[in-house]
Amino acid sequence: MLMDIKNMLWNQTWRWVDHSSSGLQFNPLQSFALDDTFCASVGEGASASIMRAWVHHPTIVLGIQDTRLPYAVEGIQYLEEEGYRVIVRNSGGLAVVLDEGIFNLSLIFKENKKFSIHSGYDFMWELIRLMFPDAPGTIDAYEVKGSYCPGDYDLSIGGKKFAGISQRRIRGGAAVQIYLAVTKSGAERAKVLQRFYQKASKGEATRFTPPQIEPQVMSSLNELFGKTMSINDILYRLLTTFQKEGAMIKSSSLQPDEFTRFENFFDRVLERNNKAIKKSTNQC
């Protein structure tokens, strides 16, 4: 079954949307609105499948549960003092870090009865393995205890997590998203979120138990490979892998008929973000 799904995804034309540089110039919330926009376009058959790369300036993306911690406002203030913009995602998951050394990729395609949620995760995992045949060890997928935003499809080498995969489905489209820590220290990023959770919970018992972060289990590709990689290196590996596997790639951008839809999605994402931030402030 997985082989059939892989063939279905590889053997097609993909719209290529590159926000790895331009994304540094706009609000990270726009990335979530863009993925929703593209999901709707693909879901209704108005667009081919899409792969979109994106990179943002230092930002902490919180999950809704993070904002409900008893001292969330103190945690958010700490993050802002550390130079991070703080936003709240419009889907599930816990806090993650974005910065210039984090490469994000969204694969957006039409939902298919044969394409289960696990199939989406498996396809992304397989893509990463194909992109890094020179990895210094097996690229595993399992929940890495002590990592931030832990999940069943944490990607790691030798027990060190360097990537996390999430998935969102809306209006007939599916977006499988991954962040890859490319440069800098994975442990230092983890320490920032470790301190956030310490300040936002202060050890009090809550309905939501925040992750007990152990910074040493987080890493970056530079650290794992023992050599310097850049965002451009990842872009090259991504595009050449797709081409090698038989996919057709056509560069694209937001189409005229997608602008209005994007504005509507962005308004919703912005409204949800503001409500979540305001609610966390009021409860503290």
TrEMBL record:
Which superkingdom, per the lineage? Bacteria
User: Site described as Lowers pKa of active site Cys, positions?
Assistant: 161
Q: Which Pfam families match?
A: LplA-B_cat
Signal peptide residues on this chain, from the entry's feature table: none
Molecular function terms in GO for this entry?
Answer: ligase activity; lipoyl(octanoyl) transferase activity
Task: Specify the BPL/LPL catalytic domain's residue ranges.
Answer: 45-229
Q: What is its EC number?
A: 2.3.1.204
Q: Which terms does the UniProt entry file under GO BP? A: lipoate biosynthetic process; protein lipoylation
Per the entry, what this protein does is:
Catalyzes the amidotransfer (transamidation) of the octanoyl moiety from octanoyl-GcvH to the lipoyl domain of the E2 subunit of lipoate-dependent enzymes.
Q: Which PANTHER family match?
A: OCTANOYL-[GCVH]:PROTEIN N-OCTANOYLTRANSFERASE, OCTANOYLTRANSFERASE LIPM-RELATED
Q: What is this protein called?
A: Octanoyl-[GcvH]:protein N-octanoyltransferase
